[in-house]
Amino acid sequence: MTYAISIVNAGTTPYTNLTLTDNLGEYTFGTGTVVPFDYKTGSIRYFVNGVLQATPTVTSESPLTVTGINVPANSNAIVIYEATANEFAPPASGSTITNEAVINGAGLTNPITVTETVDVNEAPDL
């Protein structure tokens, strides 16, 4: 899976030192939790107004936690990264995985939460 998270700042105050936390589809299983996606190390890319920026810091891979994202006033940023399914991804036809990411930091009034639900693909990944 490739995830692209777009952050638009239509205001006059920059968003600084944002943190993006992605649960990689974490769900309850039995008495604990499991994570069906693994972050593909080194895959993260960060753009501001379409220009590639220095890679932000990945402080944790599960949950994926990325720090150091800045979005200037009247600008946009896109954070792109890859994740691969692991042994905790549900194998049954018709199953889904719901992934949730939260963005918070200076300049934001409230954290931003985004979700994406993906269907299980039974075909091999070639």
Describe this structure in words.
The protein is 0% helix and 59% strand. The chain is an all-beta fold and 126 residues long. It is elongated, with a radius of gyration of 16 Å. The chain starts with a strand and ends in a 7-residue tail after the last strand. The model has no long low-confidence stretch (mean pLDDT 93). Strands 1, 5, 6, 7 and 10 form a 5-stranded antiparallel beta sheet that branches. It has a 5-stranded antiparallel beta sheet with strand order 8-9-2-11-12, with no helix packed on it. Strands 3-4 form a two-stranded antiparallel ribbon.
**CA(first)-CA(last) distance:** 13 Å
Please outline the major beta sheet. Answer: 5 strands, antiparallel
Shape: elongated
Question: What Rg do the Cα atoms give?
Answer: 16 Å
User: What is the number of beta strands?
Assistant: 12
Q: What's the order of the H and E elements?
A: EEEEEEEEEEEE
Structural class: mainly beta
- Spans of 5+ residues with little confidence (pLDDT < 50)? none
Provide the β-strand percentage band: over 45%
- Level of helix content? under 10%
Give descriptors for this structure.
126 residues; mainly beta; five-stranded antiparallel β-sheet; 0% helix; 59% strand
Outline:
By secondary structure, this protein is mainly beta. 0% of the residues lie in helices and 59% in strands. The strands form three sheets. Strands 1, 5, 6, 7 and 10 form a five-stranded antiparallel β-sheet that branches. Strands 8-9-2-11-12 form a five-stranded antiparallel β-sheet, with no helix packed on it. A two-stranded antiparallel ribbon has the order 3-4.
